[in-house]
Amino acid sequence: MAAETEKDPVTGTETTGHEWDGIKELNTPLPRWWIIIFWLTVIWSGLYYIVYPTFPGWKGIWDYTARKDVSVEMKEVQAGRAEWLNKLAAASIEDIGKDGELLAFAMAGGRAAFADNCAPCHGSGGAGGPGYPNLLDDDWIWGGTLENIQTTVTHGIRWAQDDDTRMSDMPRFGVDEMLDKSQISAVADHVLSLSSGGAAEGEGAEIFAENCAACHGESGQGNAELGAPRLSDAIWLYGGDKAAIVETITKARRGVMPSWGGRLDEVTIKQLAVYVHSLGGGQ
Predict the structure, then answer these.
(1) Residue 223: what are its φ and ψ, rounded to 5°?
(2) Burial label, 150 (beta-carbon count in 10 A; 0-12, 13-18, 19+)
(3) Which of 23, 44, 56, 264 has its CA 20 to 30 A from that of 253?
(4) Rounded to an integer, what distance in angstroms lies between the CA atom of residue 276 and that of residue 283?
């Protein structure tokens, strides 16, 4: 049964026939301006659908895409940067620091490249973490000169895709049964003594001299040419307590860093090397 309608005596507007607790609902029409705007939007949407790309395969009668604008803008940006990029390409990495403006440009590009490619492992500020080197100190496994850093970034570390990658394999003294548990414990104590400035003697020192000194040096000073870390300071990549050192001696650590030479262009790698060198630990 249809609801009975009537005119409201106060406003003269018909009711909808609905009533709740004595309150009757008015059937108030929408304002004319609202209806006009609504139909204009309907008409506009139809025109938009025809003029612009609105579904797969339809480019619109104007053949417009925002990608074209972005492409034009990127070409303008690249044209503006071309002069500086050409200067960077022509300059040796050591000469970049001699030109203040060129150095500032390289630092800006290096900072952006570091955030995009390096920060996930080394941290946004370069502080690193367990297994990821701290780039803020002066303890460099492969050397911290501009040239060293550029080479490391270009070729990576233990990265099979690059024939010139940095390679250093520490023996797995425990896994391969080169040393037994007591010997590993003794040499771990000796390594701890080196990092604390001591000069312990005995079994650990003898084992170290026979198995470790060839790479790490007699006093644990390390060897950047071999990628052998320095053991005579308090800087540790995988932890400096005895348990961590024992695990390292037993199983060895074979951390990997990608070779960026095939992913980034030479200029970007130069910028990265300059930026990393500037973080505070460069030699």
Answers:
(1) -150, 105
(2) buried
(3) 264
(4) 11
The Cα–Cα gap between 249 and 179 comes to 9
Spatial distance between the Cα atoms of 212 and 207, rounded to a whole number of angstroms? 8
Is 182 in contact with 246 (CB distance < 8 Å)?
no
Partners of residue 20 on adjacent β-strands? 23
Instruction: List average pLDDT for each run of 10 residues in the chain, which is 283 residues long.
Output: 73 83 86 95 91 80 80 81 88 92 94 96 93 91 93 91 86 95 95 80 91 94 93 91 95 92 92 93 68
What domains are defined for the chain? 32-65 (no CATH), 76-161+264-278 (1.10.760.10), 181-251 (1.10.760.10)
C-alpha to C-alpha distance for 277 and 149, rounded to whole angstroms: 7
Alpha-carbon span 60 to 38, nearest angstrom: 24
The sign of the dihedral angle between the CA atoms of 193, 243, 143, 110 is negative
Distance CA 90, CA 92 (A): 7
234 neighbors 240 (Cβ within 8 angstroms): yes
For residue 248, give Cα distances in angstroms to 131, 158, 214.
11, 17, 17
Query: 100-117 vs 266-278: helix axis angle to the nearest 10?
Result: 100
Structure tokens at 233: 């300071």
Q: Compute CA distances 143 → 135, 138, 149, 279, whole Å.
A: 11, 9, 7, 15
Pairing of strands 15-20, 23-26: antiparallel
- CA proximity to 203, closest of 227, 179, 237, 167: 179
